[in-house]
Write a structure and sequence with these properties.
alpha/beta, four-stranded antiparallel beta sheet, binds iron/sulfur cluster, binds magnesium ion, ABC transporter ATP-binding protein, ABC_Ni/Peptide_Import, nucleotide-binding
């Protein structure tokens, strides 16, 4: 598979009265054709700003892409005009958000909103657009489409509304679907159904998916590869299997320990102590140092790079720098 979307050393900052806040600080990853890539991190890690940057939707001002590239096929989207970005959003890259209620118009029926979107996209007749709407509703598993089409957003459950949003996103038959916390507002059962739907669309239509979430459990079920972000940077990248079996970055380790184990009842959740530092607040050293059980002198003065430990598995931590004295063997003691 070849990369469809490549983010290269992306930098997106917000310019406030307090100065420049680098929300995305040199992020690189790629999404292959037909793949589901998970981007994981806590709120404030830069994952949502990364997706807005890809969509050309960073609120500006105060936001601005200050460096790097976003390659869709061979085109650098950071250089694209507003018109070209609208075109990309209408045909190639679609996005769904956490709370569908805010993106659906409360005063129009589901049918009106879908047919309108279809007509804008295809210039189809009303009748043809309605038929297409019903077809797309079936594709995303919305039952009794003929009746549902006459209902208003508030008459639907959260899960159904999210399916409507996915239907809207699929109208243009996008090559890439960006889903930012698509299941966070939903209960566990509905969450599982929405993830299953995304996997189905990925498989049947070969839509590449960039799944953005704070929940490692979500990516474990859905993705092939994961990128873990912390404080505006990628701190670990690898296949799901590799990251779960052999997490390397102390932050990733902490995240994995905080995933609830469904088989064990009333298990106490492990959570990582402390907060994500405000972007830009740490000028020197590893940004995780204040929360890291393994921090040593070097971590406070130098900034770690991403070290490739095995092919495709990279970690931004000095413990994996082979030039580090007394070469570390790659295992981290259980804490
Ligand atoms: Fe912890 Fe140091 Fe690794 Fe940062 S570089 S994660 S502080 S051990
Ligand atoms: Mg977010």
């Amino acid at each position: 598979a070849r990369p469809l979307l490549t983010v290269e050393d992306l930098r997106t900052s917000f310019f406030t009265d307090d100065g420049e806040v680098p929300a995305v600080d040199g992020v690189s990853f790629h999404v292959n054709e037909g793949e589901i890539l998970g981007v994981v991190g806590e709120s404030g890690c830069g994952k949502s700003v990364t997706s807005l940057s890809i969509m050309g939707l960073v609120p500006s001002p105060p936001g601005k892409i200050t460096g790097g590239k976003i390659l869709y096929k061979d085109e650098d989207l950071t250089k694209a005009s507003g018109k070209r970005m609208r075109d990309i959003r209408g045909n190639d890259i679609a996005m769904i958000f956490q709370e569908p209620m805010t993106s659906l118009n409360p005063v129009f029926t589901i049918g009106d909103q879908l047919t309108e979107a279809i007509r804008i996209h295809t210039k189809a007749t009303k009748k043809a657009a309605r038929d297409k709407a019903v077809e797309i509703m079936k594709l995303v598993g919305l039952p009794r489409a003929d009746e549902l089409i006459k209902e208003y957003p508030h008459q639907l459950s959260g899960g159904m509304r999210q399916r409507v949003m996915i239907a809207m996103a699929m109208i243009c038959d996008p090559k890439v679907l960006i889903a930012d916390e698509p299941t966070t507002a939903l209960d566990v059962t509905i969450q599982a159904q929405i993830l299953k739907l995304m996997k189905k669309l990925n498989k049947e239509l070969n839509t590449a998916v960039l799944l953005i979430t704070h929940d490692l459990g979500v990516v474990a079920e859905t993705c092939e590869r994961i990128v873990v972000m912390y404080s505006g940077k990628v701190v670990e990248e690898g296949t799901v299997e590799e990251i779960f079996k052999n997490p390397q970055h102390p932050y990733t380790k902490g995240l994995i320990q905080s995933v609830p184990d469904m088989r064990v009842k009333q298990q106490r959740l492990h959570s990582i102590q402390g907060n994500v530092p405000k972007p830009g607040s740490i000028k020197r050293g590893c940004r995780f140092a204040a929360r890291c059980d393994y921090a040593f002198d070097r971590c406070l003065v130098e900034t770690p790079e991403l070290y490739e430990t095995t092919p495709g598995h990279c970690t931004r931590c000095f413990l994996f720098d082979e030039t580090e004295e007394g070469v570390y063997d790659g295992t981290i003691a259980e804490s």
